[in-house]
Design brief:
6-stranded mixed β-sheet; Rossmann fold; 4-stranded antiparallel β-sheet; Alpha-Beta Plaits; about 325 residues; single chain; 14 strands; about 35% helix; 2 domains
Length: about 325
């Protein structure tokens, strides 16, 4: 569906993207994660050529975007919706007028505009806010208006640049649930940019980890979450856990191991002393995922046997410390 081939981009002589290549499957939610300044936003803006790469090729739905003239590009962009953390709504337009705006640009008949806008507002749960103005809405509601407007032209691709950054945790979770529902109902291909692994795990199937303009890790979300290869991926995962004590173990569970009494068996069979310090289990995912931060008491031999028993049960074990 989307293919980037050896993309390079410089700003003022500084490399922002270097030799970036990736493929995104049709109908999936694909995540791009990294720290601020990693090049994530530039990467997503290259997909619809709001930023034109210095070299490399970009294909969307089998067509080479980088080979198009301006007229062809304008037409192709109608199939690519985009939202960002700033919402970018017209403050003097009502919710209805904001969503209708792109339809009026293409001179859609008034009756069709009315029907399309009504359907979109129903989809995002704002049918009762059609006459409201952005200043009368919460941040989460404004982001929903932005989604409705981005979907107005029935795009096949939706680009989301840090859409949850300006939202509180509860509103962000509600927004991600909406994004997942839209993906399922419309079969949209979604590219989601964020700096939070929790956001990636909530909705994405695959993820690219970006650092200093390069893709340093690429793979299924579950694999990257449980067994990250790159230092930056480990850093992003560890940032979810505040004040990590020296020598603690980070246990990652996936699939059926989430529902198994692994720690209870370990304590019962081996007499291991294990204290749970923090954790999170998400059993609502298609493939359940969870992590626990634990301290393990005992001599070295007991710890080796405990770790082996955990790994034999399908649990990923990482010994952590201050500064990780």
């Amino acid at each position: 569906m989307i293919s980037l081939e050896k993309i390079n981009k410089n700003f003022n002589g500084e490399k922002v993207l270097e030799d970036v290549s990736l493929k995104i499957n049709e109908g999936e939610v694909f995540g791009v994660v990294g720290l601020s300044g990693a090049g994530k936003s530039t990467l997503v803006r290259c997909i619809n050529l709001l930023e034109r790469p210095d070299s490399g090729r970009i294909f969307v739905d089998g067509r080479e975007m980088t080979a198009m003239n301006d007229r062809e590009l304008r037409r192709a962009r109608q199939n690519i919706g985009m939202i960002s953390q700033n919402f970018n709504l017209f403050k003097r337009y009502s919710v209805w007028e904001n969503v209708a705006f792109p339809l009026r640009l293409i001179r859609m008949p008034r009756a069709e505009v009315k029907d399309r806008v009504a359907r979109l507002l129903e989809l995002v749960g704002l049918a009762d806010k059609a006459a409201a103005y952005p200043r009368q809405l919460s941040g989460g509601q404004q982001q929903r208006v932005a989604i409705a407007r981005a979907l107005a032209n029935k795009p096949r691709v939706l680009l989301c640049d840090e859409p949850t950054s300006a939202l509180d945790p509860v509103t962000a979770q509600s927004f991600l649930e909406l994004l997942s529902a839209i993906n399922r109902q419309l079969g949209l291909t979604i590219v989601l940019i964020t700096h939070q692994m929790g956001v990636i795990r909530a909705v994405c199937q695959h993820v690219a980890v970006v650092h200093e303009g390069k893709i340093v890790e690429l793979g299924p979300v579950d694999t990257v979450s449980v067994r990250p290869d790159s230092e930056i991926a480990r850093h992003l995962l560890h940032s979810e856990i505040p004040d990590i004590p020296q020598g603690c173990w980070r246990l990652s569970f996936i699939g059926e191991t989430v529902r198994q009494p692994v720690l209870a068996r370990l304590i019962k069979e081996m007499g291991a002393e294990i204290n749970i310090l923090a954790g999170n289990i998400d059993s609502g995912r298609l493939n359940p995922y969870g992590w626990l931060l634990v301290s393990v008491e005992g001599n070295e031999d007991q710890k080796v046997r405990a770790r082996r028993a955990l790994e034999d049960s399908g649990v990923s074990v990482e010994v952590m410390g201050l500064g990780d």
